Amino acid sequence: MTQTEVQPTVSAHAHHAPPERKWWHYFTFNTDHKVIAIQYLVTSFIFYLIGGVMASAMRTELATPNSDFVSPETYNNLLTLHGTIMIFLWIIPAGAGLANFLIPLMIGARDMAFPKMNALAFWMIPPAGIMLALSLLVDAPQAGWTSYPPLSLMTGKVGEGIWIFSLLISGTSSILGALNFLVTLLKMRVPSMGLNSMPLFCWSMLATSALVLIGTPVLAGALILLAFDLLAGTAFFNPSGGGDPIVYQHMFWFYSHPAVYIMVLPLFGAISEILPVHARKPIFGYRAIAYSSLAIAFLGLIVWAHHMFTSGTPAWLRMFFMITTMVIAVPTGIKVFSWLGTLWGGKIALNSAMLFAVGFIAVFVIGGISGVMVAAVPFDIHVHDTYFIVAHLHYVLFGGSVFGIYAALYHWFPKMTGRMMNEPLGITHFILTFIGMNLTFMPMHVLGLQGMNRRVALYDPQFTTLNQVCTVGAYLLAISTVPFLFNAIWSWSKGRKAGDNPWKALTFEWLTTSPPAIENFEVLPVLTWGPYDYGVEHLSEGEEPPLTSPELQPNTSVAS
Description:
globular, mainly alpha, Cytochrome C Oxidase, Chain A, 17 helices, 560 residues
């Protein structure tokens, strides 16, 4: 079946304005998936700002080769908490927030499958963040955020224990969320929506949820065993007692490399939704993009040991993981070429959402190219534990995840709030972010090739100039958040009213009010054309979805 034969999306609009939500609704145990989504997004962005302050402090220390801003011990504390916060309290919860808002709307459901469990998953995030802050005040872990044994056994046991417990809480939150997303996607779609007519964001969340359910329990097991070593004197990983620290690394990286895709896959899905809307073209290669998400999830589970090429890994095993790591670039490349095919010949609107989406493609490809480089064993050994790895990591995660989150926020902000964001401020935000990001992380490739080690506060004076360039870029990144914060806060209350469908998009979420009513839809939506059928014969350019009156059916897709 071709994409134009899929025939997804039409519904009657919900004509009645939704009940006005009060500010205190967002501070309660609320089971509305849209409220929970806002709670996730706002909370995770607060943690992003906290992690950014830590990054700015580290970059200030690295502006000179000597320890003249924070001590080396404090630097290690900041490094540990910066990495933990950005991954477990910013990117992963932000992706969960987007999924919470979009999935029920995109599939025609009134809420998630398990609303109370959904709220519980969110309310685990603030305690996890508070505990991380306490670990800094009490006795923070100093072994680097990966906390490799036996190094972690030499540092503050109380801080390490708090750090571990915080990750266990946030990991449990991820597992509950993933279970909820899977059940909702598989069991609560409207009867007229098959798997091959779901929006691509839904496909990306299927793959993400599977990775979370497979990988996160392994990390939890590793952390529990590490906690026993630290607090009870066991020796699962402590070589002085007969333990093996390499086992910890295997367990840690079995989760932590798929975690890259747990962070990036939801944004892959968001980019696949944004590009066709603002290019006014059908998505290029719907099934290729959809199935490549599943391929990434599968291959992501068999590449973890490329992080351990210098850990005494046997040569035959190195070869296996080198090949699988290179192969995973294929489904990722399929997405990139499909996105470029979508843009080719389109009527592109260079608004804030589109700029961040295109910027996402550009910087993520750079991170992907360096990823193929470090997949090769000889090159990886040469640059292991250098700033080349820091550069690669941030082009994938900051360039991929953060640019994708910003693109998604600009695109769906009108649906979430009923207001449009200010475009000049949005474009300013993009320019500052794009320049700041490249100024911060591009020179790190050179620093790594020249031999500068990561995770250290002191370095040889020959690296000073490039480090100062990186520090200036980090300050610019910090400044770039100011126009976004002002834009979001001001637009939420004073921005121009958006209407129900300001982008003239075709997926279900745009066929209800902005913001959506509490139960999303007045009647059960019925699919009548493809979610990306822009410019096809039966939908002329600029035409809005017809307001037909589908059969009023009981919404059997909604859990009681």
